[in-house]
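[job 4471] stage=fold_predict status=RUNNING
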Amino acid sequence: MSAPLTLTLDTGHARCQCALALADGRTLSIAEDRARGHAEVLIGQVDLLLARGGIAHADIDRVAVTTGPGSFTGLRVGLAAARGFGLALSIPVLGVGTLTALSLAARAAAPLCVLVDARRGEAWRQFFSAPGVPVSPPEILYLKTALAGLGPGARILGSASALAADRAGSTDLELLRPERDRGFVPIEALAGFAQGLDPAAFPPEPTYVRAPDARPQTSKRLARK
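[job 4471] inference complete, writing structure tokens
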């Protein structure tokens, strides 16, 4: 049985990217660095990939999307697009946590930690026994706590890897990646990874960096119950 043709989307950070993992093992991808406006380019990227591969929308077997942590607006763009494709084409939609996706950039099948700067003195952290194989849930921690226990032997990926190397003496695996890709999800590796996943075990549910700061107004009127 051939591998499912898998469309993969990633819009949770300052890059809009997508990939097609084909049944013959090839992968096509396209990426554009941009802080905002992912919705303006994502569908065009998908159409361009399909044209490059001579593939029709109806040929897609499944869609995968990164689910965060990431920016609120960016994640919503990717999730909405993925669910739209799933509904229109009657195909499964899978969600892969961004920290799991980032772990796929590691070259060796060895333990590692993904550490992502969440700002405000906090970081997201998750441990893996190998790329794509988590051994702990993702958690947001004070940066000092996140760095504690990493030590010189820890292998780190993610936007806070340089900080971990500086403060904890850990090994910064991002330095092994092309400079333009450091800190970003390896979209082609993610597309290949998603081909082998069970959709039932990977629902497309978002994880935001933190809850929105906005709160319902309560002054001069009754608060909603």
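[job 4471] summary: The two ends are 53 Å apart (CA to CA).
[job 4471] exit 0
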